[in-house]
């Protein structure tokens, strides 16, 4: 049995037959696609056409923003007078792109403009007082912030008091009191009347330029799309239109830097889409600011010097590779720390002085994905005694509210439900960890359930056609508030299951039912292969796409999660011990050989226990939450094991049955062997059995271990006595059926167990286990 990692929530169908029937009559789209559209609120022909074929009418009037006219007039005056203008941006992809838009546009209009991107580690986020003071001293006459500013009271006050006007353009959460700036351009300004609240920083910059140019600035759509997608803002309304325009612009961009970046990253310009932005361009721009100076990102987008750009692209590639390496190293370190715990807390809090502060959010996301627990990772500096870090959460725990509850332990924090950043004194970390976990206890049950995923629809394999997927692609670009559809497939056989990739960490298989089939790829899910291979039916959810290889296009499912509802049995039987057998989490390890038990029981993984099965009436207690059984060495008594299995059901059975002390080859002695040994022993007296055992074995031509067993049977039957190592026959022994002795029955049962667990087919063994 393989439990789903996520909670699968099938969307209620918020439609009835009337709108569906109407849309089927009014359009040529398939029923499956129309159901998907209706679920997203596109339940009339008008709404559907407006979404699938948006026009520039959705690009709202920029002057609806509060103070836009005032900002535009001030920028025009600065351009006309030749004033020194500085655009103060941010170090992420949204900050880089919004800076590019403003600087490039003002240059086109003839302005004397430059830019400054703060350093994450030296300047921090937002307006920095030292930097603003320096800008004032250098003769700056107008500062325009982008993708930041609404929380920069002190720095902005310094500039304004020095008669340097500051225009804030921002999209982040508004504080109760706004800075005393010349003007604040923000889509959610309380005194504004802007109809769409969720622009990115690049989107706000684009609106400023639209107001300056008094037209839609199509030439900046490529850059605006990068910022919009990278900042994970809502891909609805005008954001969706901006990204649609931007993707087309990227396919025809004249920005040499982007062409060189695509080439270096192995991206075909014709295939550019929102995924290209989200997984290729955005991460590379973000990597610059995560590890150091983000300014090369602006130069990449603005420069036309090919030699300079080739060097910049190489720098960006190297920085991104370094970022990936750092993330991987920290992830492995964090996983090792988690593995040392006996059980997982509701909120994971980890810290290390060697971790790089700039990538902790990425690593925290991976730990959340692996464990299903909200995670906070911190870097601490011994010199300052300050720890800084990032957290990522799940639906069950509102991270910002949790941090607010722990504010007494923190120096500074900010964020939202799913992500946050914080700083605190290093010596406060233990108190903070205890405090946030105490707060999380209220949500313990929900946290244990894991994160949720919305499943749009359960499909049959026959529903998945290239035509259907082309229809689904009409809903692109996908992103926040317009997610890629997640489709489910219920209890379908899996075929051709295999692990792929250089390190075998990815999964590939095929869902197959009758003549219908669907290729499935599961990135970083290679470890699930053993659960899926040969199963009569599995259930899977994922995102559908069109995969083209050598000009052949086929539907493909990118696996999000998978489950198997039936109990599973895994054949790992082999003669040599493999350390991988000690890696099963949440398991009962069943032992039968005492020496092997003592040797191995100390090396089991977290949340697993060792049980030595010596009889059917003495079973150590263990938690019912342990869902897996690992039979590590070969059982010695099928009756005892059968009683154990009847009383303790499990979801998964991993059979190793290491042959620790096999006797099958020796077998059971025949009556002739018993008679021969008895005849010899009865004819002798005072045999020093230990000293004479090898000699006696050779003389009688009986395996020494088998001879020992025969003597043990005679001893229990009172045919012989052994006193102080000296064996003597009993002159008139009692009548005894040798096969009724406990020694004989124990050996017989051990041989039967070995036949079942070592020498039988796994099909036969599985049948026995299932009974």
Describe the protein.
The chain has 771 residues and is α/β, with parallel strands linked by helices. 40% of the residues lie in helices and 20% in strands. The protein has a 7-stranded mixed sheet with strand order 13-14-18-19-17-16-15. The chain has a 5-stranded parallel sheet with strand order 3-2-4-5-6, with helices on both faces. Helix 14 packs across helix 15 (360-371). The longest helix has 34 residues, at 306-339. The protein is elongated.
Number of helices: 27
Termini, distance in Å? 17 Å
State the low-pLDDT regions, or none: none
The rounded Rg comes to 35 Å
Keywords, please?
771 residues, 20% strand, single chain, 40% helix, Diaminopimelate Epimerase, Chain A, domain 1, OB fold (Dihydrolipoamide Acetyltransferase, E2P), elongated, alpha/beta
Give a brief outline of the structure.
The chain is an alpha/beta fold and 771 residues long.
Please outline the helices and strands:
Layout: E1 7-10, H1 17-26, H2 31-39, H3 45-52, H4 68-81, E2 84-88, H5 93-108, E3 112-116, H6 129-137, E4 142-146, H7 153-161, E5 165-169, E6 183-185, H8 201-213, H9 221-230, H10 237-251, H11 256-265, H12 274-291, H13 295-302, H14 306-339, E7 348-352, H15 360-371, E8 375-381, E9 386-392, H16 399-405, E10 412-415, E11 419-425, H17 429-440, H18 444-449, E12 452-455, E13 457-458, H19 466-472, E14 487-492, E15 494-500, E16 506-513, E17 516-522, H20 529-532, E18 538-549, E19 552-563, E20 568-571, E21 587-591, H21 594-600, E22 609-612, E23 628-633, H22 638-647, E24 652-658, H23 671-682, E25 687-688, H24 689-700, H25 704-716, E26 720-723, E27 726-729, H26 742-759, H27 762-770
Parallel strand pairs: 1-12, 2-3, 2-4, 4-5, 5-6, 7-8, 13-14, 17-19, 20-24, 21-22, 21-23, 23-24
Antiparallel strand pairs: 8-9, 9-11, 10-11, 14-18, 15-16, 16-17, 18-19, 25-27, 26-27
Helix pairs in contact: 1-2, 5-8, 5-9, 5-13, 6-7, 8-9, 9-10, 9-12, 11-14, 12-14, 13-14, 14-15
